[in-house]
């Protein structure tokens, strides 16, 4: 009995096994003779091991002649150091013919103990997921959207039939997600959060496609091709210290996991547009570019870049942009590099740089680097730089032109909300400070210059939301601002509508650019939770306010069109013939809808009249009692007209004051 | 919402400015020529509905006045107050003819159909349970209540007399709706249609059905005899008061955030709307702006040609409908 009580203390007793977790086996080493073995040892330690920690034991076994056997054993001081080393050097190449294969010593034991008899793996049964893209073939090409409501405890997916959204069959579920809803980038899957991990749902009936185990996931990211899912959870344990995990969506298998070392913005790993590469920055040191499906470093090594700060992929090409902070000897730089060739295609030197932020045009046509520059720099007591008089430069890289020329725009005011116009060549930003009045400024990138096309002054705006197909934009004042919404057609820079959704916390365009939805989320405001749906020109179409405590409204994304630019041009040219057909269909469906509505109302009316008839019967039956109680008939307002008293009230309509200076003489 | 635009005509409201604190109730007399208003200040007022001129105030209470009722013959007025008393007044002179003391604040009051009894409900507070009290007001002084009934669980937040005053219909803090036979000391029936406190109950002109206004953002149409739920009107905010038009199939709702929830949005100009719903189709078709705070009490004029709203901002607004209102039909 006493042993049970001490159970938890006993669990902490140092165990022999632990010592093995800090040992690594390095194999794949060249076989050298006794003369060169010492040099090899020093090389291995210097190049691969010493930088990860203290190597307390190192041994390279030899055969009876003193030749190495092709592997080595090493022990680090701590388990963490061994783990770091493993992650870093696994797969590193020594030379053309030798690649390091590293594994934990504890794994070795596990492999050695494996069954002698090989059992073939069981064939997994084929699960027919059905058509995961069925929603795209809806008759009228309506989109779907998901709403998380009732304070997050119920989620419903709707068909967006304008004015009358209909819930999708069997897609209203209680406790479908424990925190939020997340659509995959092409709209194929709906991801939901659970304590045990993430679940993906899809297909016509939103059945569960796969589950991914990761305790207490806080945030996720998909690769743009939807083949991979990246999850982050702050709950790490000694047995499982990797906070970031990468899964293959189709199989549910975890392909790789990573420690989360430094404070960073999500996503920590950024994906190339086809999902072939993902990369992260080791601030100040290197770029780590990994390739799929092997999930190992491209060319088996990191790209060492001193003082590198941040990276960003082009959304349409395998081009990686990164910037390097300035040092005492060297100015800051922005470099564009192709992958996997690692060829530099553009470089820009920048002087007096405090900070940089990269904004890619959604179609990859331009890269805008926002550079905060200073006029003076001081060093604080602890050597952190302090910048005085910051102004902003925007360096625009024209990606589709030969040699990628760069053009500069300077802005002296404070700047925020930089956004590119999708499928267009404009960009917009908010300039100024709130106390002096904010302005929204639009620029146009022309063939030979960048032109400031419009300045809209005194706008209380903190969000600029472009339509996904370009041309239309909404300037919104969300959250603490008043929910003002200004709809602008940028082809002529005219405001098409001014609306207001007081307290709106979020704004989202549908994937086709036809509708804009603003939502007052229960997560931020406890009253008036509703979503308002507007047309692209700003006409309020309808309100989604019958659902209680709406937390989140999310359109289902669509995959990019399969039509070529040529085909799209043809359709636009022949718009009249197409629209004639659709208008006819619209008219039919609206008369059908109004017919249905009329029938419904007629039914409700008959029901109500029946109910009232029953009540009136009771009422009439009690008439005698009523007469007794009051002595007069008061059933109607004029039932006791004989008791009415007529009263005449006089109200002065006009009061006039006339001044009399002298009283007229009165004749005696 | 195409119907909304039709009703955005300018309805000329008469503003009754007589109260320094938030309005708690507004009532009409049966004839519709007098308006009774009470507020969180101690002086309820009586006004002429024709032009908004004040007839006078009732002086005597020492605390917020929670409820007011006018007898069917317009001769007497009943008020209940947070000063632990209810008072009976002569409408014409404004003189207090009867005063009864209670153990706690009087939350609801009402004359019975004949006008010979008055019912009061009191709040649950410090040692005293929520109580229903019936007084015979023909006695002078009224002295002890003719009968009383303790309400053990959820306190009564609103109460009215049922048809022929055979029982009371009470709305409770937990959303319960009950029929109480006070003389027989029993609960005839309980229904749970609401999920939140019932802030107001208003009878239809013939007493056969009533509308409830609740903190759960809905108002509901219910029959008086069996408490059967028939219609539900949904909004985005707690509903403080509701009334049924005696003339057209319309229901009027007034509400807003609770006082303690009002944050910065409270300053938003005229944001608090009176909402009109179609009784049968349960669809909202119009909103009338004007109040600067939540609306606490609403009422149609007895002839259905106008309506009155009293708000947290202390204003009472009396509206007359334009001709379009009477012709307006749902397709």
Automatic annotation (TrEMBL), chain A:
Record-level GO BP terms: formation of cytoplasmic translation initiation complex
Single GO MF annotation: RNA binding
RRM domain span: 22-107
Name of one Pfam family that matches: RRM_1
SUPFAM superfamilies registered for this protein in UniProt: RNA-binding domain, RBD, Tricorn protease domain 2
Ranges in a coiled coil: 587-614
Source organism, top-level taxon: Eukaryota
Subcellular location per the Swiss-Prot or TrEMBL entry: Cytoplasm
Record function comment: RNA-binding component of the eukaryotic translation initiation factor 3 (eIF-3) complex, which is involved in protein synthesis of a specialized repertoire of mRNAs and, together with other initiation factors, stimulates binding of mRNA and methionyl-tRNAi to the 40S ribosome. The eIF-3 complex specifically targets and initiates translation of a subset of mRNAs involved in cell proliferation.
Quaternary structure annotation from Swiss-Prot or TrEMBL: Component of the eukaryotic translation initiation factor 3 (eIF-3) complex.
Protein name as catalogued: Eukaryotic translation initiation factor 3 subunit B
UniProtKB/TrEMBL annotation, chain B:
Protein name: Eukaryotic translation initiation factor 3 subunit I
InterPro entries xref list: eIF3i (IPR027525), WD40/YVTN_repeat-like_dom_sf (IPR015943), WD40_repeat_CS (IPR019775), WD40_repeat_dom_sf (IPR036322), WD40_rpt (IPR001680)
Natural source organism: Macrostomum lignano
N-terminal signal peptide: none
Location in or out of the cell: Cytoplasm
Organism lineage string: Eukaryota, Metazoa, Spiralia, Lophotrochozoa, Platyhelminthes
Quaternary structure annotation from Swiss-Prot or TrEMBL: Component of the eukaryotic translation initiation factor 3 (eIF-3) complex.
BP GO annotations: formation of cytoplasmic translation initiation complex
Purpose: Component of the eukaryotic translation initiation factor 3 (eIF-3) complex, which is involved in protein synthesis of a specialized repertoire of mRNAs and, together with other initiation factors, stimulates binding of mRNA and methionyl-tRNAi to the 40S ribosome. The eIF-3 complex specifically targets and initiates translation of a subset of mRNAs involved in cell proliferation.
Pfam families: EIF3I
């Amino acid at each position: 009995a006493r042993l049970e009580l001490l159970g938890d203390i006993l669990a902490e007793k140092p165990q022999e096994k632990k010592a093995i977790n800090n040992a690594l086996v390095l194999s794949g080493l060249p076989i050298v003779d006794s003369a060169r073995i010492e040099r090899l040892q020093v090389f291995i330690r210097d190049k691969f091991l010493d930088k990860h920690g203290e190597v307390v034991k190192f041994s390279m076994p030899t055969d009876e002649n003193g030749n190495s056997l092709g592997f080595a054993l090493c022990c680090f001081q701590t388990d963490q150091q061994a783990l770091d080393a493993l992650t870093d050097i696994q797969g590193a190449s020594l030379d053309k013919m030798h690649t390091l294969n590293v594994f934990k010593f504890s794994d070795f034991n596990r492999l050695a103990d494996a069954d002698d008899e090989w059992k073939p793996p069981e064939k997994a049964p084929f699960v027919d997921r059905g058509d995961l893209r069925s929603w795209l073939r809806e008759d009228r090409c309506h989109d779907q959207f998901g709403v998380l409501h009732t304070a997050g405890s119920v989620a419903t997916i709707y068909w967006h039939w304008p004015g009358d959204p209909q819930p999708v069959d069997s897609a209203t579920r209680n406790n479908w997600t424990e925190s939020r809803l997340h659509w995959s980038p092409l709209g194929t899957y709906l991801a939901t959060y659970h304590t045990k991990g993430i679940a993906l749902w899809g297909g016509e009936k939103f059945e569960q496609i796969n589950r991914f185990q990761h305790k207490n996931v806080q945030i996720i990211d998909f690769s743009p091709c939807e083949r991979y899912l990246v999850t982050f959870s702050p709950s790490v344990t000694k047995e499982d210290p990797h906070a970031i995990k990468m899964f293959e969506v189709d199989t549910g298998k975890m392909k790789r996991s990573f420690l989360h070392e430094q404070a960073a913005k999500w996503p920590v790993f950024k994906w190339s547009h086809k999902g072939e590469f993902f990369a992260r920055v080791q601030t100040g040191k290197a770029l780590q570019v990994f390739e799929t499906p092997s999930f190992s470093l491209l060319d088996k090594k990191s790209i060492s870049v001193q003082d590198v700060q941040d990276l960003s992929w082009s959304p349409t090409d395998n081009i990686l942009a990164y910037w390097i902070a300035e040092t005492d000897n060297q100015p800051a730089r922005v470099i564009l590099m192709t992958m996997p060739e690692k060829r530099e295609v553009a470089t820009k030197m920048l002087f007096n740089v405090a900070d940089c932020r990269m904004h890619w045009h959604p179609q990859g046509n331009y890269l805008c680097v926002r550079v905060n520059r200073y006029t003076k720099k001081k060093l604080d007591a602890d050597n952190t730089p302090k910048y005085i008089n910051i102004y902003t430069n925007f360096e625009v890289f024209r990606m589709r032109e030969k040699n990628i020329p760069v053009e500069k725009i300077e802005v002296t005011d404070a700047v925020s909300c930089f956004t590119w116009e999708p499928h267009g060549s404009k960009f917009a930003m908010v300039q100024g400070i709130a106390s002096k009045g904010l302005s929204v400024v639009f620029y146009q990138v022309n063939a030979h210059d960048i032109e400031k096309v419009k300045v809209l002054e005194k706008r209380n705006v903190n969000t600029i939301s472009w339509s996904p197909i370009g041309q239309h934009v909404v300037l919104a004042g969300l959250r603490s601002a008043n929910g003002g919404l200004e709809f602008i057609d940028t082809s002529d820079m005219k405001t098409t509508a001014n609306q207001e959704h007081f307290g709106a916390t979020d704004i989202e365009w549908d994937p086709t650019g036809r509708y804009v939805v603003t939502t007052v989320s229960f997560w931020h405001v406890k009253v008036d939770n509703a979503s308002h749906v507007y047309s692209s020109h700003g006409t309020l179409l309808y309100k989604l306010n019958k659902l209680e405590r709406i937390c989140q409204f999310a359109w289902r994304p669509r995959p990019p069109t399969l039509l070529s630019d040529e085909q799209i041009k043809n359709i636009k040219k022949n718009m009249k013939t197409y629209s004639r057909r659709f208008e006819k269909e619209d008219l039919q469906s609206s008369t059908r809808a109004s017919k249905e509505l009329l029938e419904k109302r007629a039914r409700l009316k008959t029901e109500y009249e029946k109910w009232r008839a029953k009540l009136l019967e009771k009422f009439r039956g009690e008439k005698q009692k009523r007469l007794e109680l009051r002595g007069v008939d008061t059933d109607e307002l004029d039932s006791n007209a004989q008791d009415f008293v007529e009263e005449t009230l006089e109200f002065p309509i006009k009061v006039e004051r006339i001044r009399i200076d002298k009283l007229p003489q009165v004749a005696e | 919402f195409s119907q909304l635009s039709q009703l955005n005509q300018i309805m000329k409201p008469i503003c009754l400015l007589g109260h320094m604190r938030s309005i708690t109730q507004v009532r009409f007399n049966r004839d519709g020529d007098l308006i009774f208003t009470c507020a969180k200040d101690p002086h309820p007022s009586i006004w002429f509905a024709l032009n908004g001129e004040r007839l006078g105030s009732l002086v005597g209470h020492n605390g917020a006045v929670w409820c007011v009722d006018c007898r069917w013959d317009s001769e007497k007025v009943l008020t209940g107050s947070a000063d632990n008393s209810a008072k009976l007044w002569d409408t014409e002179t404004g003189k207090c003819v009867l005063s009864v003391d209670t153990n706690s604040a009087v939350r609801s009051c009402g004359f019975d159909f004949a006008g010979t009894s008055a019912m009061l409900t009191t709040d649950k507070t410090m040692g005293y349970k929520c109580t229903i009290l019936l007084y015979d007001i023909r006695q002078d002084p009224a002295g002890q209540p003719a009968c009383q009934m303790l309400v053990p669980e959820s306190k009564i937040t609103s109460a009215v007399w049922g048809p022929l005053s055979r029982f009371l219909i009470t709305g409770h803090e937990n959303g319960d709706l009950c029929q109480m036979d006070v003389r027989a000391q029993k609960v005839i029936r309980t229904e749970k249609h609401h999920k939140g406190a019932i802030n107001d109950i208003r009878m239809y002109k013939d007493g056969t059905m009533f509308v409830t206004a609740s903190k759960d953002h809905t108002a509901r149409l219910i029959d008086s005899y069996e408490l059967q739920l028939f219609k539900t009107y949904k909004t985005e905010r707690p509903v403080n008061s509701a009334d049924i038009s005696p003339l057209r199939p319309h229901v009027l709702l007034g509400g807003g955030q609770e006082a303690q929830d009002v944050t910065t949005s409270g300053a938003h100009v005229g944001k608090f709307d009176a909402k009109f719903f179609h009784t049968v189709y349960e669809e909202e078709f119009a909103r009338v702006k004007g109040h600067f705070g939540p609306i606490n009490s609403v009422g149609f004029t007895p002839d259905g040609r106008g309506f009155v709203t009293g708000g947290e901002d202390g204003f009472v607004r009396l509206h007359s409908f334009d001709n379009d209102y009477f012709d307006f039909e749902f397709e």
